[in-house]
Amino acid sequence: MSINDEKVKLPINANPIVVHEPRFNQGGQADYYSFARDTIQNGTAEATIYNSKKLEDVVHEMGLKIKQHEENIKFLKTQKNGLDNSILDMQVALGKYQTESESGPENEELSHVLSEQETIEQILRYEKSAAGIWCQLKTRHGTQASHLPLTKDVLGIVAMLGKVDDDNLSRLLSDYLGLETMLAIVCKTYDGIKALETYDKEGYINKTSGFHGLGSSIGRSLDGRFLVICVENLRPYGGEFIADDPQRRLDILKPRLPNGESPPGFLGFAVNMVSIDSVNLYCATSSGYGLRETLFYNLFSRLHVYRTRADMLQALPCIRDGAISLDGGIIKHNNVFVLGKREVDLKFPKSFAKSNLPQDYFEIERQIKEMKWKKERTVEDMQREQALLDHARFNFGIKKEEYLKFLAQNSSYTRQHSFKQEGSA
Questions:
Q1: What is the mean pLDDT of residues 293-321?
Q2: Does 374 share its domain with 333?
Q3: Which pLDDT band holds residue 227 (cuts at 50, 70, 90)?
Q4: CA-to-CA distance for 425 and 416, rounded, in angstroms?
Q5: Do residues 222 and 128 make contact, with C-beta atoms less than 8 angstroms apart?
Q6: In 15, 35, 115, 381, which residue has its Cα 20 to 30 A from 226's Cα atom?
Q7: Nearest to 94 by CA among 280, 372, 357, 279
Q8: Does 276 fall in a domain?
Q9: Cα(374)–Cα(380) distance, rounded to whole angstroms?
Q10: How far apart (Å, rounded) are the C-alpha atoms in residues 58 and 56?
Q11: Which residues contact 149 (CB under 8 A, 6 or more apart)?
């Protein structure tokens, strides 16, 4: 019988090679010092080499993760720099358009400024309201008021976030919403709302912080309740927009009477009759929605506007979300009629159409706003990647130190193993 035909039999008392897994300390990290001692006591050099390779693989894998996070940050930085350059180029283009339009009529712009100032003065009359305190702060500190930790999430007041061409329609829309809603503070997120009012352990309002503290600091104590609207949590309009409309008006189906005809005297939907500054037309929220499809759609929904009360009453079969008429008629939701004398003096400012500017101006403004929104998201991604990178580097340093100490503790076994390999070669 040849050697190849013989079956190799192990002696009965042969000891198998035992590979010990490392123990873990109370912090959840591998205790390689105890493991090294155990392997030395058992005389298991092969197990030492095996676990050394295993730990080396872990360190290598963590190094690859670090490299991946570094590449992600590099890519995001390149993306951010590209957005910065594009925004700068477009701002230069806007400046060129504005310079070319300076020779145009100035009466319309002056009328717009005066109308806006008139609305601010009307709000300031309610000096103990949150809206009055906000306007006082804006009047004293200008744009710096928007950068305060307390107010940086505030978009503004309902009465100042929209503009209406016709003065009579502006008063009607204000009357429909009511004074409390017109003076409502509009915030981007719920965190911004929480900053406006804080409470003690017993649930009482802390008068030294939030809007209450802000009012006291400028000599205006906040009295009574006030509304705050969070646009981030509003359910946005889910339909389409009117094509090529610089104001992004909503493409809502026109009302139809039971006979299929359009109601006489129907002028349009209130939500589309409000003009919105370009800065709030796009990406007023972190989700990319503007104020028309969030704030004003939730305030007005599909509110109809008619020429006369008679037209409005004739269209009752197709009115679902209320209606107003230019001669003062108001129907709320669920066919609730508003009668009596108008009481709200506060109104929206008059819009400034910028009629002497080319159509490209509004498109560039839209693109700038969208790119700024993308830049904000990119910066947030960079911050997350940097946090992951810092964490990965910290863990890598710990594992690398453990690996080196493990090798130093077991250097005699690794040298013997290397000598054996060289001798067999």
A1: 93
A2: no
A3: very high
A4: 14
A5: yes
A6: 115
A7: 357
A8: yes
A9: 10
A10: 5
A11: 195
Tokens representing residue 59 in the block: 């360190």
Question: 198: domain CATH number?
Answer: 3.30.70.1620
**Band of pLDDT at residue 225, cut at 50, 70 and 90:** confident
Whether 294 has a pLDDT exceeding 50, the answer reads: yes
| CA atoms lying within 13 Å on the CB side of residue 167 | 7
Per-residue pLDDT of 259-285, as tens digits, reads 888 898 899 999 999 999 877 887 778
Cβ atoms of residues 407 and 33 within 8 Å = no
Highest mean pLDDT among 39-48, 113-122, 235-244: 235-244
Torsion of CA 60, 66, 72, 73, to 10 degrees: -160
423 in any annotated domain: no
224: left (phi over 0), alpha (psi -120 to 50) or beta: left
- Shared domain check, 253 and 360: no
pLDDT of amino acid 103: 43
Domain match, 266 and 360 both: no
Question: Residue 141's CB: how many other CB atoms inside 10 A?
Answer: 14
Cβ pair 308, 234 in contact under 8 A: no
Cβ atoms of 39 and 380 closer than 8 Å: no
What's the token pair of residue 394? 């910290």
Contact 282, 373 (CB under 8 A): yes
Neighbours of 356 (CB within 10 A): 16
Residues across the chain: 425
Across the chain, mean pLDDT equals 77
- Residue 410 is given by DSSP the state T
Q: Which phi and psi angles does 47 have, rounded to 5°?
A: -65, -35
Residue 364 lies in a domain: yes
Mark whether 146 and 231 lie in a shared domain: yes
Structure token digits, residue 413: 């076994």
What stretch of H or E contains 325?
strand 323-325
The structure's pTM equals 0.59
Whole-angstrom Cα distance, residue 316 to residue 310?
Answer: 10
Domain total of the chain: 2
